[in-house]
Amino acid sequence: MSGSLPLRLVLASASPARRKTLQAAGIEPDVLVSGVDESLVVTDRAEDLCRELARLKAQAVLTRLRPSDDQRTLVIGCDSVLEFDGGIFGKPADAADAVRRWKRMRGRSGVLHSGHCLIDIAAGRRAEAVASTTVHFADISDDEVAAYVATGEPLAVAGAFTIDGLGGPFVERIEGDPGTVVGLSLPLLRRLLAELDLRITDLWTKVAPGNQSVEPLP
User: Fold this and answer.
1) DSSP characters for 89-154?
2) Annotated catalytic, 85?
3) Interval 159-167 mean pLDDT
4) Using an 8 Å Cβ cutoff, are 111 and 46 in contact?
5) Could you tell me the pTM of the whole model?
6) 217, HSE (Cβ side, Cα atoms, 13 Å)
7) How far apart are CA 54 and CA 189, in angstroms?
8) 102-139 in b/e burial notation, b at 16+ Cβ within 10 A?
9) Which of 81, 121, 142, 162 is the most buried (most CB within 10 A)?
10) For residue 37, what pLDDT band results from cuts at 50, 70 and 90?
């Protein structure tokens, strides 16, 4: 393991999809929601917006944690936005907004950006970056749009769609890392950890999904 202390990862997000992404990769995070007001950041650049919000979320959670003598605590903040037609789509304001968006997006493509900010509390170091993936939407019917929005799922996610839920059938294909669209890119997390002189294998728990035993590399 890198360093002498076990690693603890705190996820500064209420997103079940982000938590499940980490768990599927053998990482069991603690969850502490940041409570950041996303309207505080105003910019015309999607990458800048999600990067700044990811940083603010990580820093907000950081202020509520204390360094521990028996473990090394890391905080990961994430934020996602869809860049479409030169505009920035976060979560829809309401169902009508989600319907309007889908009627514009269907049969076309946009770029999903996910900002990541990783902070090592004890070392006082930070690594951050944005992952971007092109999403091609299916040309779905008005009835499909209405049915999907009625489920409520689009109202809770950036861009008003998912690929790992009910919205999956309405995405024809993507160009890039699927984790970016879900909201947390594991390859990018690995690179950010490396910038802090850590390895993603250091975060593996004893038992991974499927009950297979996973031991950290020496």
Assistant:
1) E-S-SSHHHHHHHHHHHTTSEEEEEEEEEEEETTTTEEEEEEEEEEEEE----HHHHHHHHHTSGG
2) no
3) 96
4) yes
5) 0.89
6) 6
7) 13
8) beebbeeebbbbbbbbbbbbeeeebbbbbbbbebebee
9) 81
10) confident
